[in-house]
């Protein structure tokens, strides 16, 4: 079997590292994949468990010449595009930079992939939906309506990616969007994840001082990055097989993946405190919802339906949120 190259952008990030690990795991098992990752501002490396470290290629996605040269040199069959500015508050502080990365860089990457017959998996977010009470779960073809700039840039990125492949007129490439919700998992720093970082809130609250208000209104469906990495691999395998068989018309262009575990941020903090044996008194549940004067408005419930993935035969099972954290934090219990 001829080896296929997969290129993962944002491979030094929370999700990108796990996508690298997923493909590397299968590469070690079947010798099927050559795994390449790109990064820009960070110099970390990524590796499959117990396997050789994969070198990260420094790449400025804003430089079309660099991207084109890399694609021509590595000749990937698949690109998994994880790189993005994905923190809503940071997005609002740098709207132009975010649009340049989340939209325009994605557009250029899609155009170059379409021209070369590459399968591009674009990672998007549940924040493309309005999340109004009573609307979820959202099907992949449901009406979108972002409540903040982050969600809007990712939605614009979706449209840009799919638009470039449509304009290419089916030259052998294919663009598919994979939406995911709030992510957690193995991290180099707790602030890499809006879930992991709550550990710091719990520890700070346990030290005393002023109370910390924590959202107890918006519903979240935290999903493990290991599961997302495995789904990216499975989508790549399924879609390449269908494309090679000339069954492009049977492939959906919009996919969604999510855990069914449901928590508010306050409930996550309460779980962390219980696992760590810490008091929760210092954290106050905030049930007021969005502050109408806040620059970033969060949706109430953006639960994603996984129907489209199921219909193409992709396993949508996920790790148990509580079970994963009990194992992860065992060493930190007092």
UniProtKB/TrEMBL annotation:
Biological process terms in GO annotation: S-adenosylmethionine biosynthetic process
Residues covered by the RmlD-like substrate binding domain: 5-316
GO cellular component, one term: methionine adenosyltransferase complex
Gene Ontology molecular function: methionine adenosyltransferase regulator activity
PANTHER family listed in its UniProt record: DTDP-4-DEHYDRORHAMNOSE REDUCTASE, METHIONINE ADENOSYLTRANSFERASE 2 SUBUNIT BETA
Protein name: Methionine adenosyltransferase 2 subunit beta
């Amino acid at each position: 079997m001829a080896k296929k190259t997969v290129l993962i952008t944002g491979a030094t990030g929370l999700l990108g590292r796990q996508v690298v690990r997923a493909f590397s795991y299968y590469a070690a098992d079947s010798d099927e994949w050559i795994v390449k990752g790109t990064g820009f501002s960070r110099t970390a490396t990524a590796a499959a468990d117990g396997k050789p470290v994969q070198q990260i290629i420094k790449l400025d996605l804003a430089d079309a010449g660099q991207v084109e040269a890399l694609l021509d040199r590595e000749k990937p069959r698949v690109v998994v595009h994880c790189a993005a500015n994905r923190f809503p508050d940071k997005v609002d502080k740098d709207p132009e930079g975010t649009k340049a990365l989340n939209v325009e860089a994605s557009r250029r990457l899609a155009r170059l992939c379409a021209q070369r017959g590459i399968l591009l998996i674009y990672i998007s977010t549940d924040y493309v939906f309005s999340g109004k009470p009573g609307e979820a779960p959202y099907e992949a073809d449901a009406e979108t309506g972002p409540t903040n700039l982050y969600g809007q840039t990712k939605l614009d990125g979706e449209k840009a990616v799919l638009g470039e492949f449509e304009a290419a007129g089916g030259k052998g490439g294919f663009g598919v969007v994979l939406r995911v919700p709030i992510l957690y998992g193995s991290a180099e720093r707790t602030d890499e994840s809006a879930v992991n970082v709550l550990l710091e809130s719990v520890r700070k609250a346990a030290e005393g001082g002023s109370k910390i208000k924590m959202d107890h209104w918006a519903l979240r469906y935290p999903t493990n990055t290991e599961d997302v990495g495995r789904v990216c691999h499975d989508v790549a395998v399924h879609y390449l097989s269908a494309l090679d068989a000339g069954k492009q018309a049977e492939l959906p262009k919009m996919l969604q993946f999510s855990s069914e575990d449901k928590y508010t941020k306050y409930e996550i903090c309460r779980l962390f405190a219980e696992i760590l044996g810490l008091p929760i008194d210092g954290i106050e549940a905030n049930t007021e919802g969005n502050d109408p004067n806040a620059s970033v408005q969060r949706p109430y419930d953006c639960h994603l339906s996984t129907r489209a993935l199921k219909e193409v035969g992709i396993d949508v099972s996920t790790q148990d949120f509580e079970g994963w954290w009990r194992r992860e934090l065992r060493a930190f219990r007092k």
